[in-house]
């Protein structure tokens, strides 16, 4: 819940988080709230100065770029490992997610589009079965998503739908190199957007 609030901008960069107030608001004791804050500190989303404050970290473009490079590499690695083991069920799940992505774009629903995009890319990550890859993606995607939500406000055009189709078709054909290339191009599009929005 805290991660979502930070990523979606409900808790702004620099905003102070008081664990007692938060625990009361969500109906928990302070211990699980403090544990959640410690995990978010490890992920770079909050920072704590003992006996002084816990706050949402300021948005640092360099950290976002670093996270982007790592997440892109992990997705390419996951696709490379997943293509040989993907089933028709996996392919259909990717197609359904891309259809939801397109519908969300048509409706101008950025959160739904981002969720559908995540669902699509999660299929090869799960199929690859590499827990280190999945954990690395889970850790660093929130930094990227935070910048997307704070700075972009919308998604790049419908080109993403076609790129997703290329990825899905390459996966269906068991063409590992084409699938990795499509994944690289998808992430390069986000990299271009990062460069444009933060230059």
UniProtKB/TrEMBL annotation:
Keywords: DNA-binding, Transcription, Transcription regulation. Signal peptide: none annotated. Residues 1-59 form the HTH gntR-type domain. This is GntR family transcriptional regulator. CDD domains: WHTH_GntR. Pfam families: FCD, GntR. SUPFAM superfamilies: GntR ligand-binding domain-like (SSF48008), Winged helix' DNA-binding domain (SSF46785).
């Amino acid at each position: 819940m805290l991660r979502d609030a930070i990523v979606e901008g409900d808790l702004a960069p620099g905003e102070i988080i008081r664990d007692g107030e938060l625990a009361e608001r969500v109906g928990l004791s302070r211990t699980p709230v403090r544990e959640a804050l410690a995990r978010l500190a490890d992920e770079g989303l909050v920072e704590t100065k003992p006996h002084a404050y816990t706050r949402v970290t300021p948005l640092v473009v360099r950290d976002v770029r670093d996270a982007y490079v790592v997440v892109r590499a992990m997705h390419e690695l996951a696709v490379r490992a997943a293509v040989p083991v993907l089933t028709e069920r996996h392919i259909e799940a990717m197609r359904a997610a891309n259809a939801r992505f397109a519908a969300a774009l048509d409706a101008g629903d950025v959160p739904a589009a981002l969720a559908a995009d995540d669902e699509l890319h999660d299929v090869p990550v799960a199929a690859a079965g590499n827990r280190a890859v999945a954990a690395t993606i889970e850790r660093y995607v929130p930094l990227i998503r935070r910048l997307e939500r704070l700075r972009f406000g919308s998604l790049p055009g419908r080109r993403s739908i076609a790129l997703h189709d290329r990825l899905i078709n390459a996966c269906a054909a068991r063409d590992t190199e084409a699938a990795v290339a499509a994944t690289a191009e998808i992430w390069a599009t986000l990299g271009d957007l990062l460069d444009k929005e933060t230059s």
